[in-house]
Design a protein that fits this description.
single chain; alpha+beta; CBS-domain; 4-stranded mixed β-sheet; two-stranded antiparallel sheet; 6 helices; 21% strand
Length: 136
């Protein structure tokens, strides 16, 4: 097991996560999240991070448009469900510090960006739990 106090987000994050574009239908987002078994998708427009979509956000919009989890058709897009205020951190940040910030701000994930501001990964509450459980 690694020394938890020295682990960085870059060492335990999911590298190069799949992202989705804001104009794409929420049904595609649901399909990808189910296939990948993830709860968060970064949203990018022309390569720039513009939001994040969580399974909770997706379920809210799916329930609001259909009355239950069902087909919404192509008119409901990722932009309708995503959160545009995205928390991001550098790869070099320590896991413990980032986990505390996530708790403080009640978020389940943060996007990890390189020095140039480009998305390089995602760090989730599940990653933090893997560290705590000694599975890193």
């Amino acid at each position: 097991m690694n020394d938890v106090s020295k682990l960085t987000v870059g060492q335990v994050m999911t590298k190069a996560p799949r992202s989705i574009e804001p104009h794409q239908p929420v049904e595609l987002a649901r399909k990808w999240m189910d296939e990948l078994r993830v709860r968060h998708l970064p949203v990018r427009d022309s390569g720039k991070i513009v939001g994040i979509l969580s399974d909770r956000d997706l379920n809210l919009v799916l329930g609001a448009t259909t009355g239950s989890r069902g087909d919404t058709g192509p008119s409901v897009t990722v932009e309708d469900a995503m959160i545009s205020e995205v928390r991001s951190v550098a790869e070099s940040r320590q896991v413990g510090d980032v986990a505390r910030e996530m708790l403080e701000h009640h978020v389940g994930s943060v996007l990890v960006v390189g020095a140039d501001g480009v998305l390089v990964g995602i760090f989730t509450d599940s990653d933090a739990l893997r560290v705590l459980a000694g599975q890193v």
